[in-house]
UniProtKB/TrEMBL annotation:
GO cellular component: cytosol
Gene giving rise to this polypeptide: pyrF
Residues of the Orotidine 5'-phosphate decarboxylase domain: 10-237
EC number(s) reported in the record: 4.1.1.23
Residues noted as binding substrate in the record, renumbered to the chain: 16, 38, 65-74, 130, 192, 201, 221-222
Keyword set includes Lyase: yes
Name the UniProt record assigns to this protein: Orotidine 5'-phosphate decarboxylase
Length: 245
């Protein structure tokens, strides 16, 4: 695998589009770029599992970002269904607790036992959303301490539950890796190339800075989707990621 492919494989493009037609148009413009595709609530709730299957048929790695957070039994059954779909990665909220995260893992293992040909998906826990800042954490959510402390404590809980990694901002990657080990995966949204609008994101770094922090995957939505040329924007981000090698 060359450096371009290695970098592209660590870029997750958030397909935050309202319809499958718009998502297809975006994917067509990214033809030949071997990035991960992230399907979130907007597209999944409108188009359902068929579009995920279509992405898999087109050869993409798929991160299904539905952030499950419910009672353990419901999450276990949801994890069974998601694993049976054949996605490469999915997530649950770490705030659902140890029992809920362990139930998600059980759902994965039961789906694997039912269909041994499936590839086991990477299962990750969401720590503190990248839109959350220090004031919101302490004053609105009533959680004491720093954002980094909260993220690391969720990461440790996620690891204890037997999951593979977490979603966090790139600013916390080093603290997560030193608490949970370098093989514990970090998936980091909150990526903003220089000059692009932060929007609702609070904890951000550029693609190069995120890679320099040692993150495993960066997630990018609007800086690609809303660019005049999404293809050029994605290629530019991959170029920036390559500089970290
Ligand atoms: O903490 C989180 C968890 C998930 N996301 C998702 O990532 C993308 C980011 O999109 P941008 O347009 O680049 O901001 C989006 O799909 C979120 O749902 C996140 O941002 N933060």
């Amino acid at each position: 695998m060359n450096i371009f492919e290695q970098a592209a494989g660590r870029l997750m493009v958030a397909l935050d589009c309202p319809t499958v037609e718009q998502a297809r148009q975006l994917i067509d413009t990214l033809e030949g770029i071997p990035c991960y595709m992230k399907v979130g609530m907007q597209l999944y709730y409108s188009e359902g599992p068929d579009f995920v299957r279509e992405l898999k048929d087109r050869g993409y790695s798929v991160f299904l970002d539905l952030k499950m957070h419910d009672i353990p039994n419901t999450v276990k059954n949801g994890a069974f269904s998601i694993t049976s779909l054949g996605v490469d990665m999915f997530n649950v909220h770490a705030a659902g607790g140890l029992k809920m995260m362990k139930a998600a893992k059980e759902g994965v293992l039961e789906a694997m036992a039912a269909s041994p040909a499936l590839k086991q998906p990477i299962l990750i826990g969401v720590t503190q959303l990248t839109s959350t800042d220090q004031t919101m954490l302490n004053e609105e959510l009533g959680i004491p301490g720093t954002v980094e402390q909260s993220v690391v404590s969720y990461a440790l809980l996620t690891k204890e539950a037997g999951l593979d990694g977490v979603v966090a901002s790139p600013l916390e990657v080093q603290a997560i890796k030193s608490a949970c080990g370098k093989d514990f995966k970090t998936v980091t949204p909150g990526i903003r190339p220089a000059g692009s609008a932060a929007g609702d994101q609070s904890r951000t770094l550029t693609p190069l800075e995120a890679m320099q922090q040692g993150t495993d995957y960066i997630v990018v939505g609007r800086p690609i989707i809303s660019a005049p040329s999404p293809r050029e924007a994605a290629l530019q981000i991959i170029e920036e990621m390559k500089q970290a090698w």
